[in-house]
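Researcher: Next entry in the queue.
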Amino acid sequence: MKKLPLLLIFSALTLSSQAQYRSEVWCPDQGDGTYINPIINADYSDPDVCVGASGTDFYLTASSFNCIPGLPILHSKDLVNWEIIGHALTELTPKEVFDKTAHGMGVWAPSIRYHNGEYYIYWGDPDYGVYMVKTKDPAGKWDDPVLVIAGEGMIDTTPLWDDDGRCYLVNGWAGSRAGFKSILSVRELSLDGTKAISDPVIVFDGNNEHRTVEGPKFYKHDGWYWIMAPAGGVPTGWQLAMRSKSPYGPYEHKIVLAQGKTNINGPHQGGWVHIAQGEDWFLHFQDKGAYGRVVHLQPVNWVKGWPVMGKAKNGELCGEPVTRYKKPNVGKTYPIQNPVESDEFNSVTLGKQWQWHSNYDQRYGQPTPYGFFRMYTHKLSDKFVNLWEAPNLLFQKTPANSFTATAKIKFAAKKENQYGGIIMMGLDYSALVVKRVGDKFQLQQITCQKADKNKPETVKVIAELNPTDKDKINYEPAIYEEIYLRLTVKEGGILTFAYSRDGKKFKAAGDEFKMREGKWIGSKFGFLAEEPAGKGVTGFMDIDWIRVTK
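Model: Structure for this entry, 550 residues:
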């Protein structure tokens, strides 16, 4: 394991925040004044965007559901090159619910706004109500969440501060909790946006021609109140624009973006932004199954008073998504910057690309000043069936249709059946792990189909491994396995594993695996460290690095 002097580590930490990261596997900026979609080829579902205080900075957030830290904050200067700069949410409440796995619950379809010197994010938790967080620095610490409206069923919330300072909120409804859906409602909030001061009013019913209308975003433009909302379902729908002279309607509406003859299915749900140079743009997602909901950027042109998104024939009010287009005119050219994927674990804070599957518990793992991140083995329940129950899984989003992720780890087993390694997790999952069996290790592929349905795992033993090191102490000695583990994803979400003892020569390991999405999220890859229920000291896994390449 690498051990760097502290001075070098902290110097690297300082420089890393300033360095540009260019992905090997997906870079939308073509370097010639154009970009290709998606601009973020990762699962930032239900994206929303706002212009910052400077007028030249853009901030994006997205759904994070039960994953923590939640409410990712991304920054861009040109709407094409994006960097993860932090998260607005460090913990979900109630703690007794989210300290365990709560797949698909939590943060649904947030909105981000800049108002009166502060940044606000609103979201609906379908089980508990409408929440809000705010800050003066989107890259810094956000205030603790405020429960604005308590209740079940409210999702996809967006505030609008009107010209007179009054605040309104639009929201959709989750049929699984409310008992009805395809409805948009508007109500008034207090001036500070912290509580409702009126009852909701139904402003749009999409149950006939616009089923599954949800994800509304609220704007004011040229004297009109605008609601931008998707309809038709996540994989197959379209984007609506609605306008009225009153926040409470009635609203007239038109379809302004649809798949048309393109291969971009379900282009909808996102955020409209007007830039200083006068252009209008729309960021939205495309559902790509196991890869999650990736982010596209569409030009917006106003035709007959309506915001036509993408590319449309002259006079038409509904556009089709673009695959390649000229970059937004933001007045200058900015360096290429992509969301970080690889990690050397040289920082004393966990990289911003990582999330846990529950509220963080310090017993899951901690950074070190020695160039590695330490994960401790988590005791599974005495009723364990599969890893759907495991809260300590450390994940990041898949960054492209095809990529390779190679990790160097050193696993320390204090007792029998402790194991750790790499995993691709969704409703189905597969992992490549080292597991202590007696005084040696086994390399195993652990696979589960329909984990969410409580189906059991299957285990394939690939190799028997002698420990690479042993403790010489008498008190709770460990045996160690230092090994390189690799996962490779091919087009279509086909996953294979490999391993190496020296980091140079890799051997194929196990069977091919077909990736599958998680509960409202894309499949994620990362690390696991587990052990059976029972008493005794835990093992641990020191993650030296992970590198994402072609």
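Model: The longest strand covers residues 479-490.
Researcher: Noted, moving on.
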